[in-house]
């Protein structure tokens, strides 16, 4: 069976013609239950330099590897990954879910709504904004 | 208005990072994109895709090809306040079919700026109703467009029929300092709202 990467065709005007969900093999929901938040922060688990072995992993598409690369030095939000990869957020959620299930990444979830707003946190935000 | 991406420093030992979210709402052409761009370090565009014509997300793992899809683009920005504290600003999508996206954006948001265009004030009614209903702290920023009459914020407050406690300020969405002050006003307002919930007013 040919991999998704064999199916990428680019038309200069139209851009990639393979529908984005081809990368996720038609899936819209990943293994974990909760919908991954737009501002959840993704960070790659393994140290930089161990990446080469992952490229051999047949379960990881180029997009999975790109996410691992983008997140290896600092946490990146799901929203930013979608923008960086130029993919719909839904697709990125599935990809991140895959990486999470295989323990290739950590996910830092945002502060739960019930704990918002924490007074000291808000003061820190205000101080940070004033300093801009 | 492309902005160069700020290079990130590698810091694998950073404390657990905290990400927070503010929303920027307002009618078409009110200045959401401009406001986000004025303070953001980055300038990406986010794409969301609904999987149903009626605008509700459908969890269906079979035959995605069979569904007609709608793509919604939203502006978002980032402000790194500290190594471990990042603020994200999300511009809300147009109001008609995309309320389910609003719910997702609003979930866990610290607060929202509603940008008002005095030439089309009615465009922000729906956003104000939305945040009032959900108890999300919000404020109104009246964007001063060239050539538009400069209104008194209190006149705008009356026209929009919002509570005394909700900040209504004039702004220029193009100006970084103005945009920054709006965000500060919003977060201060959110802090007051929170304090009010924790300590109900004594009689």
In short:
Chain A has 132 residues and is of the alpha+beta class. Helix content of chain A is 36%, strand content 11%. The longest helix of chain A has 13 residues, at 89-101.
How are the SSEs placed, and which strands pair?
The complex is a heterodimer of chains A (132) and B (203).
Chain A: E1 10-11, E2 15-16, E3 41-44, H1 51-55, H2 62-70, E4 76-77, H3 78-85, H4 89-101, E5 105-108, H5 119-130
Antiparallel strand pairs in A: 1-2, 3-4, 3-5
Helix pairs in contact in A: 2-4, 3-4
Chain B: E1 18-26, H1 32-39, E2 45-50, E3 70-82, E4 85-91, H2 99-106, E5 111-117, H3 125-134, E6 138-143, H4 153-160, E7 168-171, H5 176-198
Parallel strand pairs in B: 1-4, 1-5, 5-6, 6-7
Antiparallel strand pairs in B: 2-3, 3-4
Question: Mind explaining what this structure looks like?
Answer:
The complex is a heterodimer of chains A (132) and B (203). Helix content of chain A is 36%, strand content 11%. Chain A is α+β, with helices and mostly antiparallel strands and 132 residues long. Chain A has one domain (28-130): Arc Repressor Mutant, subunit A. Chain A has a three-stranded antiparallel sheet with strand order 4-3-5. In chain A, strand 1 and strand 2 (15-16) form a beta hairpin. Chain B has 203 residues and is of the alpha/beta class. Chain B has one domain (19-194): Rossmann fold, CATH 3.40.50.300. Chain B contains five helices and seven strands, in the order E-H-E-E-E-H-E-H-E-H-E-H. In chain B, strands 2-3-4-1-5-6-7 form a seven-stranded mixed sheet, sandwiched between helices. Chain B is globular and about 45 Å long. Residues 6-13 and 60-66 of chain B have low confidence and may be disordered. The chains are: A alpha+beta (132), B alpha/beta (203). Chains A and B meet through helix 3, helix 4 and helix 5 of A and strand 1, strand 2, strand 3, strand 4 and helix 5 of B.
């Amino acid at each position: 069976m040919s991999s998704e990467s064999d199916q990428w065709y680019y038309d200069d005007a139209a851009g990639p013609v393979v529908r984005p969900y081809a990368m996720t093999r038609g899936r819209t929901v990943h293994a974990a239950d909760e919908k991954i938040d737009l501002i959840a922060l993704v960070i790659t688990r393994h140290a930089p330099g161990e990446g080469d072995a992952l490229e051999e992993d047949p379960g990881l598409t180029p997009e999975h590897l790109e996410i691992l690369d983008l997140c290896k030095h600092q946490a990146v939000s799901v929203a930013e990954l979608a923008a960086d990869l130029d993919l719909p957020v839904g697709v990125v959620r599935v990809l991140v879910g895959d990486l999470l299930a295989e323990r290739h990444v950590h996910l830092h979830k945002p502060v739960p709504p019930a704990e918002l707003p924490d007074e000291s946190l808000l003061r820190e935000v205000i101080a940070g904004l004033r300093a801009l | 208005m492309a902005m160069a991406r700020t290079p990130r420093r590698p810091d694998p030992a950073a404390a657990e990072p905290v990400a927070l979210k503010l929303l920027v709402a307002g009618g078409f052409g009110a200045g959401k994109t401009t406001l986000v761009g004025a303070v953001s370090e980055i300038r990406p565009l986010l794409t969301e895709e609904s999987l149903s014509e009626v605008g509700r997300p459908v969890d269906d793992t079979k035959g995605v090809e069979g569904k007609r899809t709608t793509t919604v683009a939203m502006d978002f920005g980032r402000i790194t306040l500290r190594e471990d504290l990042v603020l994200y600003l999300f511009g809300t999508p147009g109001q008609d079919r995309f309320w389910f996206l609003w719910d997702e954006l609003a979930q866990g948001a610290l607060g929202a700026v509603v940008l008002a265009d005095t030439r089309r004030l009615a465009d922000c009614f729906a956003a104000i109703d939305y945040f009032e209903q959900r108890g999300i702290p919000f404020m109104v920023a009246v964007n001063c467009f060239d050539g538009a009459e400069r209104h008194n914020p209190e006149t705008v407050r009356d026209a929009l029929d919002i509570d005394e406690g909700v900040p209504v300020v004039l702004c220029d969405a193009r100006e970084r300092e103005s945009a920054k002050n709006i965000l500060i006003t919003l977060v201060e307002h959110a802090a007051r709202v929170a304090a009010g919930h924790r300590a109900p007013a004594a009689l």
